[in-house]
Amino acid sequence: MRKSGKIGMGVIGCGSISWLCHFPSIKAIPELELVAVCDSNEEYARKAAEKWGAKKWYTDYRKMVENKDLNAVVIASANSVHCEQTIAAARAGLHVYVEKPMAVTNKEAWEMVRVCRENNVKLTVGTNQRFWLQHEWAKKLIDDGVIGEVKFGRSSLHETWHLYQDNVAYSDWRLKPKQAGSATLFDQGSHRVDLLRWLVGSEAKRVVGVAKRVATPEDVCSLDDLSWVAIEFENGAYGFVTTDKFSPVVSNITEIYATEGMLFASSEATNPFQSVPLAVYTAKDYTWENYPEILKKYRYPEEFWVTDLITRPLEKKWISITPPREWSFTRMMKHFLTCFVEDKEPLVTGEDGAKVMEILCAVFKSMETNSWVDLPLKEEVVPPHYRPYYEKKKEAK
Ligand SMILES: NC(=O)c1ccc[n+]([C@@H]2O[C@H](COP(=O)([O-])OP(=O)(O)OC[C@H]3O[C@@H](n4cnc5c(N)ncnc54)[C@H](O)[C@@H]3O)[C@@H](O)[C@H]2O)c1
Q1: pLDDT at residue number 189
Q2: What sequence ranges are listed for the domain Gfo/Idh/MocA-like oxidoreductase N-terminal (predicted)?
């Protein structure tokens, strides 16, 4: 806590996600003060400090983390530097909110977890889609048993390179193996694997998958533009994640299939077949009196006077739910703040992020072995296009 009574925040990486989401979220939370920003591009650092009111700007994160007015940092730089920046921040005693994917290899991710635990700082990973209300409510309905036992889940996020790269991105790290490590598998797969693991509520036991380039010209990007991941969970359920970088519009769908119901969730950027953020079917014999609160209050259409009063039990049908709009990034930032002020575990822990990295890295291993891969991984798995750079980085240390 600073003398002003506010909590000092820093941001490393002053690019698109920081301008669109992190800076506005920090500004929207009265307890937080943006103390310092850092970007390897001097102009970006200076411009962000001017616009968002940070007193200090830096081009070297090692210098920034020494700033005594800081309590915590958001790391929103290229994937390949997330690990070293998290470790430097943690060693300086700062709590860390690192963007997804948290690292480029499974070993890096566990190292980040270890150093944060050792230095007694909180670590959360930016899979903010858990903070979309439709996903939060889906989780609650599942945990309350409304759809029975989850046996299968499918989560997909398909979109084009151009969505980010040609419109909002400040740099082209996404297209560069040295900075991204992997493309669609890491970029979108990190969100969907995290979501599915959370909703299914079990740890991954083994994984098989593919991440490869099928549509993008090699001179544009040599990285994977299509991925699919099959997961067998410890509780016997299965999950399937798909992503790509060539579909011209966004499709974002999560489907959960359980013994007594089903649940579909989507984003606002969606296709006509997913026209509401959350749809739930339960085969349970609910009456109006014991109907789950979320279904009672937020379903549409209400139909209260027609069927609900006369039908016992309530009619079984798909229920459409449109939650109120609340910006997931600000909700996640507020939650992060509460975690380090009240010494609570974040909803997305460093361990969650590392387990997601295990699943993503296992896909590359599975392509090598042409088979299912058991988790936890026994060795460090480095994405194939990243290997030459990783070797050099290790030599340089
Ligand atoms: N949670 C989400 O939904 C979401 C959405 C978009 C991006 N992201 C993640 O945020 C991160 C940044 O993505 P972006 O879209 O903002 O990219 P961007 O290219 O718009 O911005 C990245 C910024 O980081 C800076 N940078 C790179 N290396 C640096 C270093 N070593 N030190 C300091 N600054 C450095 C670049 O100069 C650039 O300004 C990525 O990890 C990405 O996966 C998350």
Answers
A1: 98
A2: 8-126
